[in-house]
Predict the structure.
Amino acid sequence: MKALLTTPLLALGLVLAPLAQAATPEATPVDTLDAGLIAGMKAGSAGQGFQARYDALVPIVRKAYDLQEVTKNSVGFLWSTLPAAQQEELNKLFEQFTVASYVSQFNAFNGQSFKLLPEEKALGAKKIIETQLLPGDGSDPVELDYVVADGGAGWQINDVLLGGTISQVAVHASDFASLVKSGDASALIQALKSKIAALQSGSASQ
């Protein structure tokens, strides 16, 4: 269970800071997320509690991410076999997990910075927005790219590529595979509830 639900992006424990405004609509959700994380980190450094930072970040994550698409793809090919009630609960829990993970990891501003690279790569109808995380100590940057798509509500993030190649959604799908059976995701639902509770209490292992 320790390796379960470990998000590559969040496991970095890095902090972001914007260097430039988005030049295109495709890059806007990345800037939106980044701005929310910066605000949350500054609030954390100022002593604001977990719940207040969580509440502030929820609408930002909803705007930046296509969370329903991320949840469906993270569950994998058995998603279509699940009853509607479980799909609805998984959508709700995955949003809570995503936001709680961000709040837990990005809890203080320590001088790291985020650089949005100008090149945007096509991935069919989607785009890859390339970024770098620049550690505050001047060490080598970490490549972190976002897959964005326009699903009808404007451009939103639907995957994160660590190192430019490792799909966060694919990692989730692999982690979740043993917890989902055809027609039943009750084990995954319980695992997500436990992880969210641990993040909220500060007891989740990083």
